[in-house]
Amino acid sequence: MTKILNNERGFAVNLALAMVLVAVAISAMVSLINLNIDDRNTVTWQQDRLQQELLIRSESGRIIYLQGKDIFTNRRVEIVGRDRIATHTLNYRNPPTQMVSDPSFLGELSQAYQISAMCVTRHSRINAPVSINPRSPVQTYFEKLTRRSSLAQYQYFTDREISDITNDPNDPAAIVRFDGNDELFGRVHSNENIVISNLNGWPKFHDYVTTAGEMRQFLNGEDIPLPPEHKNNTNIFVKGVKEWVAPIVYTPDADLIRKNGTRFGGDADIVLATIDRGSFSTELGFINNPGVPEELVVYHTYPDALHPFLPNPPWDEITNPFSLSTITNQNQLSLVGDSLWTNYVTFYDTTWTIGSSYPVINTSYYTNGNLWVIGELEGKLTLSSRKNSYILGNITYRGTDNGQCPDGFRPNNNTYDPAGVNSSDYFGLVSESSIIIKYKWRKPNANGDMETFGGPPPPQQSIPSTNHGEMYLYGAYSAQGGPDPELLNYAWKAEGVFTFEYQHPGSSPLPFNGFRYKRTAPGSSIAEPMDYVSVYDPITNEEIQRIATPVRIDWIDLHRYKYPPDPPVTGTPPPYSWRRWPGYKEEQTQNLGPYIVYYSSGVTFENRLHAPWYSAYDYPWYNPVYPEQINWVSWANNIRGTINLYGSIAQRRRGFIRRSGVVRADNPDQNHWVDLGDFNPYGPVHFTGGNYVYGGVHRATGYNRNYYFDRRFYWEQPPHYPEVYTGAGANRMTSFDETTWNFKVPPRNWIYSSY
Question: What is the pLDDT of residue 673?
């Protein structure tokens, strides 16, 4: 061994062997380091890919607000670990690509977009000057096809499938159902049970039906679960029905319109918008409070237009007193009786001014007041109001003939005609309260005189009647009002419905024009004028004569009855019928208990139906154009016409479009009135709670229905129309979240931000 070591050649061999061993050790060490780095990079890149995908999927919420804008803003997120920082940058292609819809159906650009983006990652070390491989090789490119999914895509939507006349779901009046008179061509959804019945046949749903509850059948006076054979009946549900789906969030606010729309109308209480093709003009109504209530004396008897006093006889109190005993026909004479009560009523007035005009430029408009709307549209427009929206008459499309479907649907043969598609006109009406088809209204005409508009014209008077007869409504309508806590137990009265105004019509005592007389004393046979001009002796200055003068008296009922009326009583008729507002009805309990009676000046229920005065009594707070004579409200037939709707309806509750008028469940207010607050004869009613609907007996009233869906709403909706949300709280999602994400190889021409 010593010899070998002392041999120079042996040393060289050993040195070489040692160097080889060192090289092997270094190589092994480098290999181990590389394996460690590769493993770490593999884990890191896997984390990068997972984090990039999660970042991309989290963009659903932002895409809701970015979609349709010219620029999608990029997003950068830092994820800090124990020893490093990963910075993910999401780069969008701008602007997003608007997709062409099915040319066989629309043949136009729709609100469908291809969203494209690339996510890249950069790493940095914590407390280190340099990071190994700072730029991650992981790059995730995706495309997402999205389109707006809004409430317009449901022909019929309700948040609560309950009527607007009760808040008790167990009340029979709460049950609203579809029957053989209903045929719906678009999708239907309710967040509560949907009830159908086999009345005049089964209803027919041509598109998919969903409910967050279950399907039920109204049978023998109650609703029961719908049997499976009916759920599977394609003659009822052509495309099927699905129960217990996730509820759709129905917000009480028009969020998108508030954020993106244009404010108009200022602080006006009423904004009347008249659409004239590519623009709309406005008239502004301001409701004024005079501050001082008027005193209206209630008398034992009081005249009206149908029961006037005799013409002014040739008499005066002093020189030629008039004796009532000389009247041969006592039925011709109505005297003002003794004063019984004084009503204090504040009469609001509405002043009108000309507002601004606005263009129809594919956007929305929002007003804080009540919105009245009518007209013909050319373009894309959504109107919205914080308070009620009133439909004054036809709302039509320039590009579609009245009575034709704007999506080319031909109901006579159940086909679609591409040549009949309206590719330009879309209308939306969104109220944060209710949408109401107006009965009639008053405002100044071109001469400045107050005139009544709308409705069937009274005899010998020409009045527009666009909201009676055949009414045409095109577009999407959403009544989103939520409960109002200020109404306390009646908070639900403020929940939004699509309905019609003045559901219980009655005749009104018309204003009295003539002379008023009263007895000089109770039981006296001598009458004296209440309104007169005194003639005085020029020498003695003593009154020598009173000359009766004619007067005009409005609000006759407020001179006949106490306001607010006393509550109803049980038992025998009270001696003071003037304390009750007109209207008589008897409700008897099942055990034949005591009657609950509402009196009308001694006129019984039976003969009141045939009385020569008024078949039912009206109420100044209720009739928008009080007073109206009996034949003005078309008592021969109270059905006001047919609503031909081409579009969709969404509402918080299910409002009535037709009322039977004689069914107890249809008139739950028991035929009496409650305090509605101050009176505004020329503007909207401001009620302070309670049952503000009068339930007098009348014939069926309202509108027949002829509803069709606008299939274009599957692809494009009116500007800023309310979106469809599901879930609640942090889990609330729109339909965007449910659309498929497509991860692809990046295109060669992709350009993104430096990172």
Answer: 38
State the pairing for strand pair 183-184/426-431: unpaired
> What is the rounded distance in angstroms from the CA atom of residue 394 to the CA atom of residue 272?
14
List, in sequence order, every beta strand (DSSP E) within 310-468. Answer: 322-323, 339-345, 349-359, 363-367, 370-377, 380-385, 389-397, 407-410, 415-421, 426-431, 435-437, 441-444, 450-453
CA dihedral of residues 61, 64, 67, 73 (deg, nearest 10): -30
Q: Which residues of the chain have pLDDT under 70?
A: 1-14, 60-71, 96-113, 127-133, 145-148, 304-335, 455-468, 506-507, 522-525, 564-622, 629-638, 661-699, 725-741, 748-755
Place of tokens 């061999």: 13
For residue 19, give the H/E element and its range. Answer: helix 8-57
- SS3 at position 208: coil
Beta strands in 562-662 (DSSP E): 569-570, 586-587, 596-597, 639-651, 658-659
Tell me if residue 231 falls in helix, strand or coil: helix
How far apart are alpha carbons 299 and 303 in whole angstroms?
Answer: 10
State phi, psi for 197 to the nearest 5 degrees: -145, 155
Amino acid, single-letter form, for residue 695: G
The predicted pLDDT at position 588 comes to: 27
SS3 219: strand
Give me the residue spans of the domains in the chain: 2-134, 152-246, 252-289+347-502+626-663+675-714
Alpha-carbon distances, residue 10 vs 14, 106, 300, 303 (angstroms) = 6, 93, 144, 144
Residue with tokens 């649907």: 409
Half-sphere CA count of 243, side-chain side, radius 13 A: 13
Q: What is the pTM of this model?
A: 0.73
DSSP secondary structure of 493-547: GGS--EEES-SS--B-PPPEEE--EEESSTT-SEEEESSEEEEE-TTT--EEEEE
Find, among 708, 730, 501, 739, the residue nearest to 625 by Cα: 501
Residue tagged 């929002």 (tokens): 366
Cβ density class 166-186: b for 16+ within 10 Å, e for less: bbeeeeebbbbbbeeebbbbb
Tens digit of pLDDT for each residue in 406-442?
Answer: 999 998 888 899 899 999 999 999 999 999 999 888 8
> Are 402 and 425 in contact, with CB atoms under 8 Å apart?
no
Closest CA to 256 of 575, 736, 718, 691: 718
Q: Are 630 and 611 in contact (CB under 8 A)?
A: no
Strands 349-359 and 279-288: antiparallel
Per-residue model confidence (pLDDT) at position 409: 93
- CA 667/CA 523 separation, integer angstroms: 42
Return the closest-CA partner of residue 720 out of 145, 254, 59: 254
Instruction: Classify strands 725-726 and 701-708 as parallel, antiparallel or unpaired.
Output: unpaired
Q: Rounded to whole angstroms, how far apart are CA atoms 299 and 599?
A: 17
Residue the block writes with tokens 């804080």: 368
Length of the chain: 755
